[in-house]
Amino acid sequence: MTPHRPAMRRAPPVLGCLIALLAAAAPAPAADRAERTAARLRDQALAGEAIAYGFVSELTTRFGPRPAGSAAEHAAADWAAARLRALGFDRVAIEPFPLVGWTRGEESAEIVGAHPQRLAAAALGGSPATPASGIEGEVVPFDSLEALRAAPVGSLEGRIVLLNQRMPRVAGGYGALVPGRLFAPGEAADRGAVALLLRSLGTGTARFAHVGSTRYRDGRVPLPSFALAGADADQIERLLALGETVRVRLHSQAAHVDTHSQNVVAELHGREAPDEVIVLAAHLDSWDAGTGAIDDGAGVAIVVAAAELIARLPQRPRRSLRVVLYGAEEVAQPHTPETGGAAYLARHAAEVGDHVLAMESDFGAGAVQALSLPPGVAASDFGRALYRVLTPMAIVPSREPPGRGGVDIAPLVEAGVPAFVLRQDGSRYFDFHHTADDTLDKIDRAELDQNVAAWAALAWLAAQTGADFRALSAAEPAE
Fold first, then answer.
1. Which of 189, 279, 288, 435 could be cross-linked to 358 through a Cys-Cys bond (beta carbons 3.0 to 4.6 Å apart)?
2. pLDDT in tens, 51-71
3. Which pLDDT tens digit goes with each residue over 188-221?
4. 70 CA to centre of own chain
5. 157: CATH
6. Which structural domain range is residue 387 located in?
7. Number of neighbouring beta carbons within 10 Å of residue 445
8. Peptide bond into 354 cis (omega under 30)
9. Is 143 exposed, middle or buried (0-12, 13-18, 19+ CB in 10 A)?
10. What strands, in cross-sheet order, belong to the sheet with 421-424?
11. CA 216 to CA 51: how far, in whole Å?
12. Both 56 and 116 in a single domain?
């Protein structure tokens, strides 16, 4: 006897349409597996299974500061290459390029005359030495680069310019004031000044100078130029407000030396499309005051740890993942603007057309808060899958476009390679940036691991997909 079966009921039309839409939106099996793997990589990193903290701890402890072209930077590159080989990367190479290095030497700054006192100051990168006896002059303050440019030629003869621009604790504050560090030495020299003091580009209240490179002109920085701690800039400002004439004496033994830097390149060879390359970038050099923990030891650890998590998987990703630890990001050059980023582009010019994506970590270890994708990528199946994986970490779509992606990968982006940007919490970054306080204790381990989680998930999905990021980046998405 055949059992009675109730008649099948048809789904209501609206429900039927919804089911059809969900079925159409559901990932294909391969895409679904890739997304599940990305989520697993994310969760491993969040659980503390990544090597990032140990990597940055060893890097900053063994080598300390790593100025571009220095013995410490060279040794750090050798160590990093050896560690990458031991971690199972398929191809590891050190790619050297020539560099004009800069050394700080002994230096000092002080107010002289009726109210003598020492100043917390440090020469800007590339700045020339003073005469052996130092250089002395009356301070003339300016509150902006534009105000300095408005001063008549010859009006600052024999004087020392103080460019006293305060940096706000807002996104974009640093970028808005960097032109002062780059161009004020030349503008001051054009008006007859003998030296420059620059209020440090930083947001902290610690009495440290925030250093950084300045701009060469005709193969040299035009005059001795120093970063000055904010508290000391305020001190000079108050003396001037009291009607005092402020004279400062500066002394520097800075020097230039012919040397080299290098990029460290390590790859996980793609199993199906090995010529399609995704670059994961950070820079190995640092300034000489601290140990370069947030700038950019953290970035080095993030990209290495993300790729290493992927290397543990049973199979390599479909596309190749290439970790590039750039050299000489922090410095300018006397005769060319080119450093590690340009050196990489020149060496790999023949294959840049096959680079499908470039990303850079160079903003410390603050938690990732947002993701910048080209609009066409964000609206794609890849973009939707990526947001599903990142959303549980409170990472949201950014309204800022990726732009040049970062200093090191900018030459690749300008050559047509798309950039994605994982945007971090930078609210305290410029408290320590380019100072003696850039040390390992400023890194929060949980936030570092959160970065690795986001990077590993993104890198895996990008390496597994067949999406053409160049075409998607050029496309106008539907509303």
1. 279
2. 999 999 999 999 999 999 999
3. 999 999 999 999 999 999 999 999 999 999 999 9
4. 20
5. 3.50.30.30
6. 29-102+257-474
7. 14
8. no
9. middle
10. 396-397, 368-372, 421-424
11. 39
12. no
